[in-house]
Amino acid sequence: MIIPTAEQIRYLDNYTIQNQPISSIDLMEKAASQFVNYLLDNHQLISTYHTFLGEGQIKIICGVGNNGGDGLAIARMLINKGYRVNAYEIDFSPTKSSGYLENKDRLGNKIESLIECTSIDQLELTEDDLVIDAILGTGLSRPTEAFVKEVIKHINRSNSKVISVDIPSGLFPDDNSQNPIEGIIQADLTLTFQFVKQSFLQSNTGWLAGGWKVLDIGLLEKGIDQLTIQSHYVSEHLIKAFLMPREIFAHKGIFGHALIIAGSLGKIGAAHLAAKACIKSGAGLVTVQGPKCGTQIIQTSIPEVMYLQNSGENYIEPFKLKSNFQAIGIGPGLGQEKSTINALKFLIQEVDVPLTLDADALNILSNNPTWLAFLKPGTILTPHVGEFKKLLGINGKGWNSDEEKLKLLKDFCFKHHLIVVLKGAFTVICSPNGNFYFNSTGNSGMATAGSGDSLLGIITAFVAQGYEPINAAVTGVYLHGLAGDLALEVESEESLMSSDIINQLGNAFNVLHQ
Fold first, then answer.
1. What was the pLDDT predicted at 110?
2. Phi, psi angles (nearest 5°) of residue 60
3. At what angle do helices 469-487 and 505-513 cross, to 10 degrees?
4. Closest to 154 (Cα-Cα) out of 178, 177, 121
5. pLDDT cut 70: percent of the chain above it
6. Residue 282 in contact with residue 261, Cβ under 8 Å?
7. How far apart are CA 244 and CA 263, in angstroms?
8. How far apart are the C-alpha atoms of 197 and 287, rounded to whole Å?
């Protein structure tokens, strides 16, 4: 699923109108119909908002642009279904869109009154009301101000539940770094049309959309071919396209030999998690390179995995690879002893095998930034936010907005020709050419010890099987999150462990193969 900019959304709207062909007003009708159908098909959800119960009313608050036109069409459709609806016109412009005027005419006398709201006092809201926010849409080009801003603040102060049409009013689809939060609707639910908006996926603005659902309104996909899309929302459809089939006469040698370099005294468990996730993600052979103290632990806990005993007793020391590996994952529980630092330096400079770096490997790299120049193009780094800041060499907050963070991420990947998996909610994978892939799976229960170790193992397994590194990263992140979601069906967010995620990898693959 693509994540177009506001300008690209307008282009696709116009492309559909010109080439389907369909009139602008009929496209609005289609969007409003999808919105209403979702409400009625999910009546149990809506009932939790106290809607249609007791003294509650549906109060649709409309601007005078096309988003307001959607709101009036929604009002007409709900009235036709027998619901109590009040509509309010927030007149923020002397020019009303043709779509708004047409839907105002279609509404006619179906509603007792379309209140032309000129004062906050006219907008009485109670906790039993459902507010449908249709004030401003994706065409907004500057922060809200004056009366519109006061209306938004009034809605946010009320105890009413709010469902936004397409996007919370006042929120930009793209860059909100200069957009004050107090001028944006705080929705409980957003029913957005055709595409998820990038601002829904960012920590500084995503909460404003509440829960959200994408509704298909039939914009022509052919129009997408005319655009340069740099942001994508990773869907099951994309991952199914990435997955390589396994032939009936295949053998383990076909699926690659992965090496996991991990563990130190007291942290052999990290090596265990990474290796087990790797073997359960399809790698034909998996070897762990670790210190002597980890030999018995790995050999007994994962008998399917081989152990290449390093000369170091408690920590990895420099070594030469003697086997032919198709992928190497390094970092979990590695420690930062001087001997380990030297071992990583040798690996980066001398080994011509695709690498995935995590945890202590990233910390060592951050302390030796000149080594970035030795990483092969397409090397995968999997930092969390704190580790990414260290890689950039910045302290403290690091950036003023998520938009600035994404720019720094894009510049870093382009400069060093790397793939970065920036972990967190809606984990974003950035390719060397600046494409973003926002992940759609996972949950907050996965913010637990060892979760990153298992992700390293999964990605390394896909690289070993011959996946292109960017496809391996995107597929690995999606599968990791999907396994975490399946684990949540039997665990709670509080109790979820990395081993629970690994144990659900088989079920996650089965979901994708269905």
1. 66
2. -100, 120
3. 110
4. 121
5. 96
6. no
7. 31
8. 42
Cβ distance 354 to 326 under 8 Å? yes
What pTM does this model have? 0.93
What is the C-alpha to C-alpha distance for residues 353 and 328, in angstroms, rounded to an integer?
7
Which pLDDT score is estimated for 396?
A: 77
**Cα separation, 471 vs 431, whole angstroms:** 10
- Cα 89 from Cα 103, distance rounded (Å): 12
Which amino acid, one-letter code, is at 335?
A: G
Reading the block at residue 235, the tokens are: 């869907």
Query: Comparing C-alpha atoms, which of 459, 442, 424 is closest to residue 330?
Result: 459
Q: What's the per-residue H, E or C state across 74-107?
A: HHHHHHHCCCCEEEEEECCCCCCCHHHHHHHHHH
Burial (CB count <10 Å: 0-12, 13-18, 19+), residue 417 = middle
pLDDT digits (tens, 9 = 90+) for 215-274: 999 888 888 888 899 999 999 999 999 999 999 999 999 999 999 999 999 999 999 999
Do the beta carbons of residue 264 and residue 337 sit within 8 Å?
A: yes
β-partners of residue 114 are: 87
Cis bond upstream, residue 432 (ω within 30): no
Q: Catalogue the long-range contacts made by 399-406 (C-beta closer than 8 Å, 24 or more residues apart).
A: 400/177, 401/176, 401/177, 401/204, 402/202, 402/203, 402/204, 402/205, 403/174, 403/175, 403/176, 403/177, 403/202, 404/177, 406/436
Q: Residue 182 phi/psi, 5° resolution?
A: -65, -15
**3-class SS letters over 407-437:** HHHHHHHHHHCCEEEECCCCCEEECCCCCEE
Q: Residue 11 class from Cβ within 10 Å (0-12 exposed, 13-18 middle, 19+ buried)?
A: middle
Q: Cα–Cα distance between 78 and 87 in angstroms, integer?
A: 11
- H helix or E strand, kind and range, residue 280: none
Q: What is the DSSP letter of 321?
A: -
Beta strands in 244-362 (DSSP E): 257-261, 285-290, 306-309, 327-330, 355-357
Written as one letter, the residue type at 500 is D
What would the two tokens of residue 290 be? 């670790």
Instruction: Fill in the DSSP letter of residue 494.
Output: T
pLDDT at 21: 86
Closest by alpha carbon to 477, among 416, 430, 410, 408? 430
Q: 401: burial class by Cβ within 10 Å (0-12, 13-18, 19+)?
A: middle
Per-residue pLDDT tens over the stretch 80-133: 888 888 999 998 888 899 999 999 999 887 666 688 999 999 999 988 889 999
Q: How far apart are CA 438 and CA 4, in angstroms?
A: 13
Where the chain has pLDDT below 70, the residues are 43-56, 110-113
